[in-house]
């Protein structure tokens, strides 16, 4: 039986270097070690694992199935160790607490940079770890304790969380020059469904909103291309590959100046709410509670769409 205590971090690091470069020689050069030292470490790691991790080829290395499995685990372990070291070093220089925030793309692109910057100006000894995730992943992470605070879309159920309204944003239709809809000021979503769309990847709350609206209109959302970011959607629309729906604030002014046309949507769901969520506000660590209170209050006077409902 393999003893997990026999794995050491240096050997795992060298294994990753060898796997990524496909060469013990290049791994030794990158690690500033002799080839024999690296070769010995890999051999010891294979003895510990009790199986071959590489197939030795005339011109390099190839991972075995066991090696591929170990590579994924080794990366996770070293990433965790790096985060641990970073956290401990932060405390050594006076950081008082860490707050883990998971937020969807809309919040990260539009609102959180400004709000977090202003919060940290008031609380410089707090460290915030912000991760951009899909709304469903965010809700699960907060429920499971992987994140202290989540920011997610209003069409994702979160019955197990305490929620506060954070911001509201307005969705608009973005079309390329010369498109039939480029000449209209306002349209319904149903009237856009005769055209090809560029959308976000599967799992995003925005794509779910559009898909649900298409089903309600008894039409099909014709996704020609799916990408992973708002900027990528804009670039695809610029290239004439389809039309798309994005948060208004996320569309850079220079894109509109270059010829893309923003068309208002008449559908009520085009104005949506982003929510703050925690498992229990009373159970938050002090620094996380400060950020929770700050985001919940700071959003209200500066949000032109906020109605105050749902608190």
TrEMBL record:
Q: What positions does the domain HTH lysR-type occupy?
A: 7-64
- Name the UniProt key words of this record, in alphabetical order: DNA-binding, Transcription, Transcription regulation
**Pfam entry (one):** LysR_substrate
A Gene Ontology cellular component where this protein is annotated is: cytosol
* GO terms, molecular function: DNA binding; DNA-binding transcription factor activity
Q: Which InterPro entries match?
A: HTH-type_LysR_regulators, LysR_HTH_N, LysR_subst-bd, WH-like_DNA-bd_sf, WH_DNA-bd_sf
- Per the similarity annotation, which family is this? Belongs to the LysR transcriptional regulatory family.
Task: Name it.
Answer: DNA-binding transcriptional regulator, LysR family
What is the organism field in this record? Ectopseudomonas composti
């Amino acid at each position: 039986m393999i003893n997990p205590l026999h794995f050491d971090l240096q050997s795992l690091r060298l294994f990753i270097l060898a796997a990524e470069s496909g060469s013990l020689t290049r791994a030794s050069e990158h690690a500033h070690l002799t080839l024999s030292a690296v070769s010995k470490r890999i051999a010891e790691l294979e003895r510990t694992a009790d199986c071959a991790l590489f197939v030795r080829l005339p011109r390099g290395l190839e991972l075995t199935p066991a090696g591929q499995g170990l590579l994924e685990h080794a990366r996770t372990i070293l990433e965790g160790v790096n985060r641990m070291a970073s956290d401990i070093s932060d405390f050594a220089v006076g950081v008082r607490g860490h707050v883990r925030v998971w937020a969807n793309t809309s919040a990260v692109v539009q609102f959180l940079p400004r709000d977090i910057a202003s919060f940290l100006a008031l609380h410089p000894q707090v460290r915030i770890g912000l991760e951009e995730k899909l709304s469903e992943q965010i809700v699960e992470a907060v429920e499971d304790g992987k994140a202290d605070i989540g920011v997610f879309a209003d069409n994702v159920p979160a019955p197990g969380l305490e929620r506060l309204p954070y911001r509201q944003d307005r969705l608009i239709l973005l079309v390329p020059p010369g498109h039939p809809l480029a000449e209209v000021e306002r349209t319904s979503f149903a009237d856009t469904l005769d055209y090809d769309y560029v959308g976000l990847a599967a799992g995003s709350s925005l794509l779910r909103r559009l898909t649900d609206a298409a089903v309600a209109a008894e039409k099909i959302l014709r996704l020609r291309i799916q990408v992973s970011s708002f900027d990528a959607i804009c670039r695809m629309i610029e290239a004439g590959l389809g039309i798309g729906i994005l948060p208004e604030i996320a569309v850079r002014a220079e894109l509109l100046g270059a010829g893309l046309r923003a068309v208002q949507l008449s559908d009520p769901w085009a104005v949506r709410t982003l929510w703050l969520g925690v498992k229990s506000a009373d159970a938050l660590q002090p620094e996380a509670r400060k950020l929770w209170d700050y985001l919940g209050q700071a959003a209200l006077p500066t949000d032109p769409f906020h109605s105050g409902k749902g608190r």
